[in-house]
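Bench notes, afternoon.
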Amino acid sequence: MPPSSSPSSSSPSSPSPPPLVLDIDGTLTRPEGWGIDPRIFDPLREWDAPVILATGKAFPYPIALCHFIGVPELVVAENGGVVYTGEDAFFTADRDAPQAVAEQYRAAGYDLGWGDGDTINRWRETEIAVSRDQPLDPLEAFAADAELEVIDTGYAYHVKDAAPNKGDGVEVIAEHVGIDLADCVAVGDSINDVSTFEVVGRSFAVSNADEEARAAADEVLDAAHADGTLSVLERVR
């Protein structure tokens, strides 16, 4: 008599979840908008596909977040200025020109807004961030003179080279890791996520997203911050 088949051998396998590309601030944060929402840790650690963190934060922050979550280090940092594939780091711009703009800004009597310690910029490799409570017009003028751009992510003004962006960084990681971008799902909240939305197969903007992100996303979610992201994870799992 032939052995009976086990239930696992006869039942169809569950489809794999898609690779994720996730912004951090405004997307993985608590409802009040600051601090990582701890509810995202377990779903991401258990996600059976690559998870890319694509952020405007300085390079060490998303690397540390990967460690805390327990996922491989796949990171686009500083709005595309730094890309880490899990093996190699790529620096697509340098900090010299943005630093010169920051020095001009200070010399004109303004301030970056982070205090003497300035942990926001201390470990940045390719750009400078300025607090959103500081004057924007002179910052944009100094940046334009240096042929740089200023983007407002909703959390800071970023003075950066105009060429690098998050989407380019995601493409670099996808090539190195072997991800089909058409299979990827992205969630974000800001103008700096538009380039990501343009290269992935499906994109979502949380309800707290700015106008540019909302217009570029395939769908605008009803929920904000991590609540919105968690709703996407549940849906596409």
